[in-house]
Amino acid sequence: LAMAAFVRALIGTPILFKAHTGLTGGGQSLARSLRFCPNHLVVFSETMADFVDKQRPNQPVTIIPNGVDMDRFKPEGNQIDLGLNKPIVLCVASLNHNDHKRVELTIRAIAKLPYGSLLICGDGPDREYFQALGEELLGANRFAIQTFPFNQMPEVYRYGNLFTLPSIDEPFANAYLQAMSSGLGVVTTDDEIRRYMIGDAGIVCDVTNPDVYAGAIAQALSKDWKTKARKNGMRFSWDMVALRYRDLIMQMISQSSLD
Predict the structure, then answer these.
(1) ∠ CA(193), CA(178), CA(166), 5° rounding?
(2) Which residues of the chain have pLDDT under 70?
(3) Other C-beta atoms lying within 10 Å of the C-beta of residue 44
(4) Residues 114 and 183 sit within 8 Å (Cβ to Cβ)
(5) Quick count: other Cβ atoms within 10 Å of Cβ 82?
(6) Distance between CA atoms of 92 and 186, rounded to whole angstroms?
(7) Any idea where the domains of the chain sit in the sequence?
(8) What is the pLDDT of residues 101-141, one digit of tens each?
(9) Alpha carbon distance 222, 228 (integer Å)
(10) What is the CATH number of domain 88-235?
């Protein structure tokens, strides 16, 4: 962004900036970005737009969510098979004991259920810790940690029956969109951005309470989410998102020519 501001100062090229970090850390990163006064700012929630308005009232801002390729992430197609006991709860997250993903909450919640397996897709410095904890609480036939290349992830989502991610905050995780586009219901943290993203395609709850979290997972596993999840995912299809960016870019080009 600093380099873009430098180029703008030299030749007048307007800046269209997408705020990827959301309001993590109390919005400090977003506040720093606003100091560069982008010509137009893209955020992905009303909450972010309100934050921007308070920080810099005259900042032009548009709400455009992240998008998902619904032709790639769909219920139909091949799937992996790791031999885990069904049903499968899928969690896509980095494995760091001290980060905001809070994967341990998911392991302990599913351990309260007498059925179902947890597949964690991810890697990180504490992978061995989570591997040991999962095997201790769930056993090898109900738990696995694996990493997959991105082009195989559609097959991974199809293997699951439910998606969960208990992160303490999440700017706009693509994993939610990919899961819903693949026909999976979602159980996740109860906050404004997750309620907006998940809609009626899952359950939001207090994931810090193991009994409540486990109960939400059990309830979600008893339902068929495919239709609702896929329909909700269409709100974030790349086709829709691309059109909104196109319109915004054309608007900025038109405005720049007038200036």
Answers:
(1) 45
(2) 259
(3) 22
(4) no
(5) 11
(6) 12
(7) 2-67+237-258, 88-235
(8) 899 999 999 999 999 999 999 999 999 999 999 999 999 99
(9) 14
(10) 3.40.50.2000
Amino acid at 58: N
Question: What pTM, to 2 d.p., does this model score?
Answer: 0.88
Residue-level length of the chain = 259
Within 13 Å of residue 204, how many CA atoms lie on the same side as its CB?
A: 15
Tens digits of per-residue pLDDT, 164-196?
999 987 777 899 999 999 999 999 999 888 999
CA 110/CA 103 separation, integer angstroms? 11
What order do you get walking across the sheet with 88-92 strand by strand? 143-146, 117-121, 88-92, 162-165, 185-189, 202-205
